[in-house]
Amino acid sequence: MAGSGLMMVWAAAMIMIWLATPSQAIWLSLPSSGTKCISEEIHSNVVVLLDYSLVQGGDDDRSHPTTMSVRGSDFMVTSPYGTNLHHQENVTKGQSAFTTSEGGIHIACFWLDGNHQNGADRSIDVDWKTGISTKDWDSVAKKEKIEGVELELRKLEGIVDAIHENIIFLKEREAKMREVSETTNARVAWFSLMSLGVCIVVSALQLWHLQHFFRKKKLI
């Protein structure tokens, strides 16, 4: 009972943190040459929504960005095993939506087109959403004809489900890590016993050799 109570308190705290933390975009400064990448660890069967928009100016011009109307950037998303999930060239803005089939670190990389104007640096606004964050609650409310408290409860239900899935994912990962740790410990123990056995055999052979040598020399 105490464990389940602590779990409920922890889940409630996570919900409050989730609701209190606003969704913020990521700003990247793209150099005239080179690549900037962002990554996030996502488990399998998770919906991912990524919006990006290339803007003029560097870090000092974020308060008044202007969408570029000239040469754009190249964009690519890869899975943990190197599968190309999304790739676009010479774009100034766009969106990528997909469902992960592999669990692990997913990487999104951006680089400026080689012929972009003036060869100056640019900034890109990236909004990366996963799981419950990608859900369009306005569409859900219109489709199911719910509003007010019922809609908020549906949001909370979705958040709780997402937290529950994350807890299960963490438990599975902990179990795998524990299994690897136990296997490693067993192998280390067997290696230690083998090393001890080799040392004992070598010591016995050395003792036998010394005794044989001293007897041959008639020293003992």
Summarize the structure.
This protein is α+β, with helices and mostly antiparallel strands.
How would you describe this structure to a colleague?
By secondary structure, the protein is an alpha+beta fold. It has three helices and eight strands; from the N terminus they run αββββββββαα. The strands form two sheets. The chain has a four-stranded antiparallel β-sheet, with no helix packed on it. A four-stranded antiparallel β-sheet has the order 2-7-4-5, with no helix packed on it. Helix 1 (2-20) packs across helix 3.
Q: Please give the radius of gyration in angstroms.
A: 30 Å
Helicity, in percent? 40-55%
The largest sheet, given as strand count, sense and whether it forms a barrel, is: 4 strands, antiparallel
State the end-to-end CA separation. 75 Å
Shape: elongated
Mean pLDDT over the residues:
76
Low-confidence parts: 16-23, 59-71
Number of helices: 3
Order of helices and strands: HEEEEEEEEHH
The percent range for strand residues is: 25-35%
